[in-house]
Each structure stands twice: as structure tokens, then as C-alpha cells.
Amino acid sequence: MPVRMVSLFRNLLAKKAVEKALDDELQAAVDLLTEEKMKEVSSRVEARRLALIELGGIEQVRTKVREVRMGRLLEDFVADLRFALRTLSKSPGHATVIIASLALGIAANATVFSVVNGLLWGVLPVKNPGQLVMFSEGKSFSYPDYVDYRDQTTHMFEGGIAAHFPFVPANLGGAGEAERVWGQVVSGNYFSVLGVNMALGRSILPEDDRVMGNGHAVVLSQNLWRRHFGSDAGVLGRDILLNGQHYAVVGVAQAGFHGSERGVIADFWVPISMVKEIAPGLTAPGVGLTTRDDQWLMLDARLRSGISRAQATTTVNVIKQRLDATYRKGQKLREAITLQNAGGLMGVSATPALALMTVLMSVAALVLMVACANVANLLLARATGRQREMGVRLAMGACRGRIVRQLLTESLLLAFAGAGMGILLAMAAARAISSVRLPLPLPLAFDFHVDLRVLGFTAGLSLITTLLFGLAPALRATRADVTNALKERQASSGVYGRSRLRNALVVVQVALSLVLLTAAGLFLRSLQKAISTDVGFEPNNVLVMRIDPQLQNYPAEKTERFLAELRRNVGALPGVRSVSFVDLVPLSVINQGREFRVEATKDHAAQKVQTDLRGVYSGYFQTMGIPFLHGRDFDSNPNRQNATIILNQTMTDRLFPNQDPIGRTVYAGKTAYTVVGVVRNSKSRTVGEAPRSCAYFFLDTTPGKNFNLSGISVLVKTAVDPRQLEHPVREQIALLDPNLAVFNIETMQEQFRQALVLPRVSAWLLGCFGVVGLTLGAIGLYGVMSYSVRCRTHEIGVRMAMGARREAVLGMVLRQGLTLTGVGLAVGLVMAVLVGRLSAGLLYGVKGTDLMTFLTVPAVLIAVASAAIAAPAFRAAQVDPVIALRNE
Amino acid sequence: MTERRTDLLRGTLDLLILKALSLEPLHGVGISRRITQITQGGFQVSFGSLFPALHRMEEKGWVEAVWRVSENNRRAKYYSLTAAGRVQMKAEEREWNQVVKIMTVAVESV
To answer: Considering only CA atoms, which of A376, A407, A373 is closest in space to residue A390?
Structure first.
């Protein structure tokens, strides 16, 4: 409709010209009519009067023409927006409170939604991700089974089934400083099945995967290429070292592709044919190519077009039954294979994840609803104050729909301002959540951020909230009986009687924020206690760095020679007090343990002890500051003939109560160890644990034995700031083997803090929720009190006219507000005590009824609540009886 | 000639205006007079309805306007039918005839 578009633009843009033309036209019409009338009457003035009567008034006609014009609604909207801005800027405090309230509610939703978005709905950066399926939610399959499934389903899946193993640690050498990286071994069809584009070069091909031990090709991730190779296009064909083996770089994957599991970050891919070479340590625990018992590969496939997921599921399960019948007679069988969308969370079934997300979304929605209720209260309070304005507008002939539209525009403005602030908060929150690193030695990372989908969600949410909080006050404001509104008399008692629901809402808010803040307080106190706990070792001035010589295919003797030389060289550095090695530093989340007995038999139930195990070098106890109670340290060189062991106090007490343990023998399975020493207890797994039985043996460097993902930790006790020695120690390691990566460099203090990450995050989260709850509660209280004071203005005026003093009025309102707070506090305290009792198991060094917390939190709450009540109370006290009563 | 007659069925006014303009271009007052004339005084349109209708029809592209000097030497805005306006007039005529037929049958049947 070009004519209409032209009119629309002309009406909106050339408004003045359009108005002028209309004026001219109407003026001309009046003149024409006047001429006509002049034939009937003699006086020109009289003629003009008659002309105007017939026209029906220039202004009236003009208004009617304006109303039918194109873009009328838009023009109205802009005018409403302008009016809303002016109204809101007249009471900035009021607007701020509303916007803050909405921002909190919307931020909570946007944050949860961006997490849900990132966890569940993100799409792999591959071709047609909808066709890709993953087998049994990321459960693992053996290599021979994989080959059978692959070869018997080619009619179902495009390019066959792809297999990969997601966690391969590696020393990346041969180019610059050695780096610890994580990669994956993949089948030759992996990249073609997934449909991943290459930024450079080619992908891993089936040829690379044909002959075992002969596929020295590697594809790098975009990140690794940028980080380690400076985005050099000449990297193709370059020879690099991965765990001491030569590989040729054949390609660089497209940006954004980190492997097919969500949250796992892979930096390189090598063919399955190289699995023995790339991960020598991995071959021991169940990574075999010939046995069907070693289940380690994850499978993905792309459905051929025309093949449904159900058909494919049936087919693979027929094959499964055949395999089970042939190879697993009489064994416990695995459940039927299912096919899900590829690119999901690894090992996490979508259903419980979805359930958790639903709970989170519901909580967030509840927060928003409370925020909306609060805002509705505030707007109601205002609507009551604006009844006179509305009355005047209605009396002047404004139609109700028009006023409601204008009030809703005001609400929309508030909602969008709130949404804007909410998005900013959500961005910060999403970044904070993404930055939380689990204390696990695995390449896990999530990237939550506010994307277009989140923005769309938030915009939709703002529209809904506008209706939620804006409609009721708008309808109420315009329902006003014109006569009464103009007289400004309010049916105060009736309105006030209906606010029971509002009061209940405020009570619930106060109670919930008390519970949340109390829980946060308990966790904080627990954290505080934990930090000041004696962990049994001395975490100051200890530098920790990890190396993984096992991955370099070092034989045991070479590792021992390497460690001995490293200890001598580092020990000679200035500022170094002592050097030692351990397989797993204390307070790591992962752990290792075994059962120990005093005798080699199996039936002495009373004398077997489940024990944490640590492989250490001599000097470990000196370096860590753990004192010996009896006996001595290990010899500085391992004695393979006669295995020795050092026990901690708890283990000694359990196995050798009231006996001298030195020289006795303990058994782990059939292996005998001679006890040479006893050391003081120290924390092993967590700061909060009760004393645990712990044994130390000499670190076993045999390849494939005691494989753990953290490698070997080098401990350096220093006389100076341990960070100063980071570089010299790295240099010493590089001198011995330039291709051995050094990783996870930290001080023992940092490791200690990292160990408290979960309690810290819980305290932080609860604290955030508590503060949000408190803020909303305060706003709710403020809203209800303001509304009540507005409704009672007349009553207060009467009271004052009758002689009530300002202090009495102030006291009356304060009392009303504090009663609400008090009820909320009482309810909240009961719940808080229950929560405290329930969380007692999670707390360290603090009782569930910690007096300090239970005194501080209610005090803070009362202070905040009083502040929220004070403003309306003072407003009530400022009521001028003359003005309040004049309108009668 | 009563005021009530001015708000006849919705759409009637449009048809009357289109009809009035089908002979020659007219200004607002002229259209009003022409309608009175062709309805033989049975219908007097108020300017409060006429001008909004004219502007609406102009925006729809049924009529177009030019400023001209009137017969008694005054500048006035003259409206004339466009091609689209003629098509619209034919359509509204057909519609109106149908309404009349139906209503006549209905009114006379009881």
C-alpha cells in the first residue's frame, strides 16, 4: 500500500505541513460558508457565526480529522511515552524502587534462562545438528562392539557411526614452551559424520585410522592454534610432539568447535589408531582395542534422511541383543540403547537436568511474581494518589481505554527500564557462573552468556510483567467514580480491608529472606572457621606444580632419575628450603584409597582399615610441615625390594592400639609393607573431615601404575614468596626435558582456598539470594505501607484535627509496619532453625543454631525493614490536616 | 433533515461522497451541498463527519486533492475521484444494492 505508507510517513514526519494544510482547508470552508450565509443575512459577523455553527467548530472538526489519520496509534504512543517519562521523572525515588524491583526479578529469570540455554539448548557448531544422535546419553562402548555397530548400520547412518574418547591429557612439545593440553582420540570418520568444517587443512580421515600405531596426524582446535601457534597458517604439516611422539598437524577445526560434549573442552584430535601411543597411562585402566570388556568409546551418528530415530533405535538394539547373546552369555546386561540429540551434557541424562532446570526456572518465576506484586502495590499506592488526576481527565471526556493505554505505557516503560538493568545484572551473573571452575583435573568449562535468545526471552518477559503489575492498578485508577474522585474522598476502610493478601505477601517475603540470609550466614561462619582451621600441614610458602612424566612414556628408572636430578637442581636454587614429590596433594577433590590389614588373611574383619593413600618422596613431610611422631622418613632412594610405609596417627591407633608400630608389617591385598614411621594427622580430602586413616608409600613411577590425571606434584618449600620461584623451577624442568609440560602451578595456599570453593560458592549463592530476597521484601514492605498511608490520609487528617500529635501518627504507622515485620521474623525464625538443623551436616565448626548468626541476621533485617517503613511513616506524620480535610 | 440522518449505516457516507465526486471535482462545502442535492434534501452531512471521511479516503487513495481557485475567487481544496476511487464506488454500489434488496424482502415479508 504505497499511498498509505506515504501518508503514514507524511503524517509522522511532516506533521507541521499536514496540520497547516488542514487549517487552510477548514479556514477556506468557513470562508465559503460565510459567503453563502451573506446571501441570507446582512452582517458579515452574523454570517460568519452561522457558518461556524454549521461547520460545528473548527477545533472540533480538526480533532476528528486527526483521529482518523494514519499513524495515530503510534503518535499516541509517543505522546504517552513522553508523558510517562515526565510523570516518572517527577518522582524519581518511586521510579527507582520499581525499576530496581523489576530488575532483580528479571535478572533472576534471565540468568537462569541463560544457564538453561547454555546447558540444554545450545547447538553444536556443525552441519544439520538436528540429525546427529548420541548413543545412550554418552555411555561408553568397547572398540569391538563399536566396529560391529558401525559395520551393521551403514544403511541407517550417514557415513557410519563415529567414536571418540573425550579425555586425553598430553604434553604438547616441539614448538615453544611445552604445554599441558587435553585432546580426544577419534575414529577416522568422526569429523565427516559430525560435519565439522576445517578452518585450515583437512580433518582426521579414515586412512589415518587404518593401521594401529601408524596415524601420526593431529587436528588442532582454533583456540590451541591461536594460543600456542599464534594463528600461524604455516602450522600445516608441522611436526609437533604429543606425549613425546611425533605428529603432523593436518588441520585446524573451525572456531567454536571443542568436541561433541557440552562443557568438555578439547584442544586436539588424533585417530584411535594412536590410542596406545598418545595415552600410555590410559591403556592400563580399560582402554583396549580387542576386548569387549573395556568400554571407553562414546558413539555419535548422523541419521540418513528418511530414517527416523525410532527405526535407528530398533536396529541398534537388535544388534545389541545379538552381541549380548554371542559375547555376554550369563553376564549382567546393559539397558537398551537409546538415541538422543548429540551435543548434550556428558553422562548426564537430559531428564533430571531438565527437571533441575524446571525447578530453577520456577523459583526465578516466583521471584519475578513477587517483584511484580510489589510493583503492583507501589503503583496502586500511586494510583490512589492520582485519582484526582484521573477524575479530571475522565470528566474532561477522556475515554477510559485511552487512559488505561496511557497508564500501561507508563508500566511498559518501567518494565523495559527494569529489563535493561536486569540484563546487565544477568550478564554479570552469567559471567560469574561461567568463571566457577570445579576443582577437578579435567578440561571442563561452560560458557553462559546473554545471547539473542535470552534477550528475546527477557523482552517477552517484560511485556508479560507489564500486564501483570500494570493492568490491575490501571483499571483501578480509571474505575474511579468521577464525583468522588474530584472530591478526593476515598473509601479508606474498604480498600484497606482488602489488603490482607498484600500483608501476607510481605510476611512471606520477610520470612523467606530471613531463612536465606540465615543459611548464608551459617555457611559464611562455617567458611570462616574452615579457613582458620589447623589442617595439620603448613600451607605457607609452598609452591606446587604438576608434571606428568608417565605421559612421556618414561620408564620407571628414567622418571626416578629425572625426579632425583630435578630435586637436586631445584634444591640448589636460592630461596629453596626443600623439595619433594607427591602424586596427589591434600585437599584435592579426587582421592585414592585402599584397605589395609595387619595380616595377610582376609577374615580379620576387626583389623582392616579403609585408608587414604598417598605416594610421596622422602622429604615430603618436611616440605609440608607434618611432624613425625615415631620412626623416620623414607630413604631418599626408593627401595624396591623392601616396601616401606609411613602411617598417620589415626591409622596407627586403629591397627596398632597401644603398640609400637615401627617395624611391623601391614598388608594391602597381598603386598606387605614395613612400617618405618608415624606422622601427625593432617587433612586429607576436605577441610571439614573428621580425622581419616592415611598411609604414605614411596611414589611408584612404573608406567601405567597409579595413573592419575593430576600427574606428579612437585612441592617446593621456600624461604621467600613462593611465586618468585615459579620461573626458576620451570627453567630447571625445561633443562631436563623441554617437552615436558608444567601445569596447574599454584601455591599451597591457593590450593587450600580452591578446596573451599564449594562452601564458598554456596555461601555466595545463598547470600545473593538472601540479599535479593531482603531487597524485594523491603520494597514490598515499603509498597504496602505507602499504599496504606495513602488510603488513610483522610483518616490521619481527622486524627490530627482531633488533636493527635505527629509523633503519635508516626508511631502508629511504624507499629503497623513493624508488626508485619515481626510476624515475618517469627515465621522465618522457625523455618531458619529447621534449615539450620538440616544443614548441620554441611557446616564445619558451627552449630546449626549459631548464636552469632541468629542474632546478626534478624538485627540486619529489622534495620532494613525499619528503613523501608520510615519513609511512609514520615509521610504520614507530614500530613497536613487542613489539606487532608479540605477536599471533603 | 434531522441530525439523526447524518449517521446512517457505516459506509453509506463513503458511498455518498464517492457519488458526489463522480461528476466533477468539488471542495468540502461543495460536496456537502452536492449530497444534499442528490439526496433531494433527505440527507445533510455534518462537516464533523465529512472532513474526517475525506481525509481517510485520501489516505486510502480513493480521492486526491488539489488547491484551486473557486467560482467566487477563493482558494479551496478540491477533491476528485481516482481510478481506485471509481473501483471502490462500483463495489460499494453493488454492496448497497444487495443490502437494499435483502432489507426490502425482510421488511415486506412480515
So the answer is: A407
